[in-house]
Amino acid sequence: MFKNSWTIGHVFGIPIRLHITLLIILPLFGFIFGTNIGLLTETLGLDPDALLLSPYTIGFLIGIGLFVSVALHEIGHTWVALRRGLKIRSITLMILGGIADMEEMSKDPSDELVIAIMGPIVSLVLGILFLGLRFIVVNAPADLHIFLLYLGQINIVLAVFNLLPAFPSDGGRVLRAIMAKRRSYLAATKTATSIGQTFAILFAIFGVLTGNILLVLIAFFIYIAAGQEYSTNLVNATLEGFRVRDLMTNDVVTVPAHYTVAQLLALMYDEKHTGYPVLADGAVVGCVTMEDVQKVAPGDRDYYKVEDIMSQALQMVHPDDDAVEALTRMSREQIGRLFVFDELNLVGIITRSDIMKGFQIRQIEKTRAE
Ligand SMILES: [Zn+2]
Asked: Which residues contact 109 (CB under 8 A, 6 or more apart)?
C-alpha cells in the first residue's frame, strides 16, 4: 500500500514499516526540538553547561523517542483489532504519524470504538510514564530529565490531539462509533465527516495565524482523508449486496498470444479497452494492458509479440464475489481490472469504472425512489 518504505521488524507477526518521509522529517524534528532545549533548561532552572550532550543530539533522540511512541500508539490500536478478530496488514510510520493498514474495517461500531480509543490511551500512559520516571531518576544527568519531560509532554499532546473529534482521527472514529449505534453507519460517517472537516478548517486557520506549518499540513490531510472515507462509505453502502456478476462486462475481448504489439494497439483503438486477457491454445495464459504496451518503443511494435510483454499473473474473481470487495482489492493493488472466472472458464471482466457506473445508476435509482 505504501511504496518507499522498509520493514524494520515485526510485532504480533505484523510488519512495522518505516516510510521514507520519516527519514526526511526526523533530522528536522531533531533540529526543532534541539532549538527548544535551551529554553527548557532555563525554565527547569537547570544549568545549560550541565548537559552532557549537545542540544541537537538530545533533540534527535527525542525525535526517535517520538516515533517509537507513535509506533506503540499504533501497536495499541493493532492489539485490540487483532483481539477482535480483524486482520492488520502492516503498520507504517510516516511523516505525520503512524497508519495501521487494516484488511477490512469492522462493521460493528463497538469494535471501532475500542480500537480507536486504545491508541490515545497508550499515548496517555506513555506520557504519564515518562513524566513520572523523572521523579525516580532524580540524580540522573540533566539530559535525561529533559528527554523524559519533553517526550512525556509530546505523548500527552498526542493523546489529546488524537482524541479531538477531527474525523478520521481516533477521536473522530470514537464519535462515529457512538453515533452509529443509533443511526446508520453511513449517516454517522456523514456527520463525523462534516465535523472532521470543520475541525480541519479551524486547524488550518489557527496554523496560518500562528505560523504553525505542521498544523496546516495536518489540517489538509484531515480534510482530504475525511472526504475520502465518506466517499468510500457511500460507495460501500450504495453497492451493498451487489455481486461481481451484476456489474461485470460479459462479452470479453481476448487477444491471441502471437499478436504483435502493433496488432494489439490496433485492437485497443477499435475496442476502447485498455486491458485484455491473452489466449494461447484456447486457454487464458496472461493479461496485457496499456502500460505493458507503453514499455515497447514505437519502432519495436512489429517485432514484439503480446506473449513477450504480457503479465502472467492473472487477478481473478468469482462471479458471486462481493462487488465492493472487488473494488477494494483493485484500489489496494492498484490494478484496473479483475478477470471473472467461473471455475476454469473466463466469463467476464470487471473494471473499476464498471463498478463506479453501477454505483451511479444505483444512486439515481435511489434518488428517484425517495
Ligand atoms: Zn491513533
From this structure: 176, 177, 178, 180, 181, 185, 188
The rounded Å distance from CA 177 to ligand 1 centre is 15
Chain-centre distance for alpha carbon 85: 20
| Best mean pLDDT range from 4-13, 132-141, 172-181, 264-273 | 172-181
Residue 168: cis peptide before it, omega within 30 degrees of 0 = yes
Q: How does pLDDT run across 80-89, given as a tens digit for each residue?
A: 999 988 888 8
Length of the chain: 370
Give backbone dihedrals phi and psi of 99, rounded to 5 degrees, phi first.
Answer: -135, 125
CA of 7 to the centre of ligand 1 (A): 20
- Kindly report the backbone phi and psi dihedral angles of residue 2, in degrees, each rounded to the nearest multiple of 5, phi listed first: -110, 115
Looking only at Cα atoms, what is the longest distance across the chain?
Answer: 83
- pTM assigned to the model: 0.77
Positions annotated as catalytic residues are 74
CATH number, span 244-369: 3.10.580.10
Q: Please give the distance, rounded to the nearest whole angstrom, from the Cα atom of residue 112 to the centre of ligand 1.
A: 12
Ligand 1 mean position, distance from CA 260 (Å)? 52
Write down the residue that cell numbers 517520538 correspond to. 66
**DSSP letter at 53?**
S
